[in-house]
Specification:
Length: 316
Amino acid sequence: MSDSAEQGSVASTVAILLCSMHGQHFIAEQLESIAAQTHPHWTVWISDDGSQDDTHKIIRQYLSKWGDARVSIQSGPTQGYAANFLSLIRRENIRARYYAFADQDDVWEPDKLARAIAWLDRVPDDTPALYCSRTRLIDEHGREMGYSPLIRKHPSFANALVQNIGGGNTIVFNEATRDLLREVGEEVRIVAHDWWAYQVVTGCGGQVFYDPYPSVRYRQHLNNQVGSNTGWSNMFWRLRELLKGRFRRWNDINIEALQTLRSRLTQENRKILDEFRNARNRSLIPRLMGLKRSGINRQSLIGNLGLACAAIFKRI
């Protein structure tokens, strides 16, 4: 991207961080939906994780059409989608007032950025802030399939420890949030970039807003890195993975990563993290009592029943 673009109006620009890999079937539609945004001040930064299809060719077509003041492409670290998104966050030459994650295969509603910015503008610049929203589910042909679950409880660190409410394809955040995400070294391992962002912002005393309006059409297809949480088959799959220990392994990874930001966590949230971490390894009754004291919770009754099941069988 040209120096003039990097030195442009930071105050009004959203840097869209888009990760791609074998995205030839859908990335053009995603880019067109970005071009259709009612908020016109944006740049797209694409990190491609080794595509062997026509993804590069399509991106070059948009580079030719839009110019390097609008779109840039780089090579990703080829260590998974979470590491790819973090590589974009760490890039020194990407500067904007706000930042948005974008997946290669979704479609943004025209007012997605405008809605996010309307809320973010109300938050002081020095306060970490993160906007996320509900999604409209579509199939590979763009046909509607329903909606993602509606989140009703207020976002919190106690919720973030055991659940991610903000799909990365909906997330927009400010510079204070980016600073926190960049503070962690490249060697730190995380489960998912969006869950990590939710944990970091709530843990460090920032603000998270969940918009019940579906700002993104979230495409469901066979090659999804992460799919929707809806449906009985998905629920049974998650229960099976929980009993196999996957959820516990994820918590191990997240807890270790959060230790790198321990000094940034609020005093209350350090206590929640410590209670959660220590209780997980106790015998049954002390484990259940400690987890209750920590205040961890999920957004739904079924989710909390699953959490209780995980706690009983030491899969948390």
